[in-house]
Amino acid sequence: MVSGCKSTVIPNSVTSIGGSAFYGCTGLTSIIIPNSVKSISGSLAFRGCTGLTSINIPSSVTSIGSATFQDCDSLKSVMMNVSIPLTFGENVFSNLAKASLYVPYGSKGSYMVADYWKEFKHIYEAGDVNKDDEIDVADVVGIARGIVGMQNDGYVEFLADFNADDEVDVRDAVALVNEIAGDVAFAKGANVGGLVASGNAVPTLSAHFVDGTVSLLMGAASTYTAFQFDIHVDDGVDVESVLLNERRGNGHTLLYNKMGEGWYRVAVVSIANNPLRGTDGELVSFTLSDRYADDIVIDNIRFVTVQGDSHQLDGIDVAELTGVQSFAQDGAHEADGTAAYTLNGIRVKMTGKGIYVKNGKKIVVK
After folding, report:
1. CA gap 363, 342 in Å, rounded
2. Rounded distance, CA 33 to CA 17, Å?
3. Residue 138: partners with Cβ closer than 8 Å, 6 or more residues away
4. Distance between CA atoms of 211 and 293, rounded to whole angstroms?
5. CB 209 within 8 A of CB 321
C-alpha cells in the first residue's frame, strides 16, 4: 500500500494495480494510469482517497475491481479512454451523481445506456469541447483556444484531444473539422471555389524582420490547412499584434496568447479546412514592442494537411536571417519590374521605391 502520496507517478512497467494499493491516500488529488496497466484487479485500490478529484483510465484497462473508487467523495472527473463500457459490479464509484464522465468520440451513446455508467451526472465525449452536448465548429474554435492557453472555465483537455494522442494541437482541430463534415473531400474544397492546392510538398518558411515586424512566408504550395508555432523574444519585449495575410483571413481563424514571459503561441485553423497556398504570399506577420529587438526565435512549427498528416519544421532564429540588400540611389541598380511581395504579402511588380521580399531576401529600393 502507498501512503502519504500527493504526486504519485505509476511507472510504465506496471501492468496491474492490486487491492488496496492506494487505500486511504487522502493527499492524492489526481492520477494518470499508464497504458501498460491492463487491470485494476484488486478491490479497494483507491478507496478512501478523499482528496482525489480526477482519474484518467487508459484504453488498455479491461477490468476494474469492486469498490475501487469508493469513498472518493471529491471525485469530479473520470476520463475513460475505453470505447466500449466495461462490465463490473456496483460500488466502483460512490459519487456518480456528482462526477462527470468523459469518454472517447462516438461512444457516448453506449455509456448513456450501459448499466452503472449511465448513473454519472454528466457524460461528455471527446470533441464536445464546450460541453453543450453538440459537436460543431464552436468546438473547433475551442480546440484552438486550448492550444494557445485561452481555455474557458470548465475546459477539459481530454475533450480537446480529439485524436487521443495525449497532445492538444492543430491536428485535433483538422480531424474534428473532417469529422463534422463527414467527408474529407468535402472539407478540402469547402468555400474555396474549387481552388484546392495541388501536391503535398513539405512546406518551407522564410522570415523577414523590418522595423519591428516579422513576416513569415510559406514557400511550397500544398494542401496544408492549419499550423501553429511559438514565438520567443527577450524578457520585456511584447508581441503587440499577430495578423493573417488578408487573402487568408476569410478562410482561417488566428488565435495567439502569451504563455509565459517572452513566450507566445500562435494557432491558425479553418472551420472548413480551407487550404493554405504558398502562392498567396505572406502567411502571417507579428509586430514587437521593440522595433530593434534582436533575439527572436520561432520554433515548434507544425503544419497539418486537410487529411490530418503533419510536418514539424525546424525553428527559425530571426537574428540569423539574410540581411537587407539595398539598391543604390545613383541608378546603378534599378527596380527590375519582376514579381515580388510587399511585407504584408501582396504580390506586386518591383517597379518603384519601397521594401520588397524576393527570393527569400528583403530588398530596399531607394
Report:
1. 10
2. 9
3. 129, 130, 132
4. 9
5. yes
Residue range 43-53: mean pLDDT, rounded: 89
The length of the chain is 366
- Closest to 108 in 3D by CA, of 157, 159, 154: 159
Pairing outcome for strands 316-317 and 297-305: antiparallel
**Residue 338 in contact with residue 230, Cβ under 8 Å?**
no
Contact 194, 327 (CB under 8 A): no
Name the grid cell of 323.
540581411
117, amino acid identity? W
Percent of the chain with pLDDT strictly greater than 70 = 78
Question: Residue 225: which H helix or E strand, with range?
Answer: strand 224-232
d(CA 75, CA 30): 9
Determine the pLDDT at residue 275: 83
Distance CA 241, CA 318 (A): 17
| Whole-number average pLDDT of the chain | 81
- Measured at the CA of 360, the angle between CA 298 and CA 225, to 5 degrees, comes to 55
Residue identified by cell 493527499 is 27
Query: What's the sign of the alpha-carbon dihedral 111, 117, 121, 124?
Result: negative
Indicate whether 359 pLDDT > 70: no
Distance CA 48, CA 20 (A): 10
Nearest 5°: the CA angle 45, 49, 53 is: 115
Whole-number Å distance between alpha carbons of 52 and 74: 6
Which carries the bigger pLDDT value, residue 309 or residue 71?
Answer: 71
Q: pLDDT tens-digit profile of 307-319? A: 888 888 889 888 6
Alpha helices in 209-273 (DSSP H): 246-249
Q: Answer for the pair 350, 356: CB distance below 8 angstroms, yes or no.
A: yes
Torsion from C-alpha of 109, 114, 116, 122, nearest 10 degrees: 10
pLDDT at res. 337: 63
In this prediction, residues 325-349 reach a mean pLDDT of 54
How many separate helices (H) and strands (E) can be counted in the chain?
A: 6, 22
d(CA 101, CA 105): 13
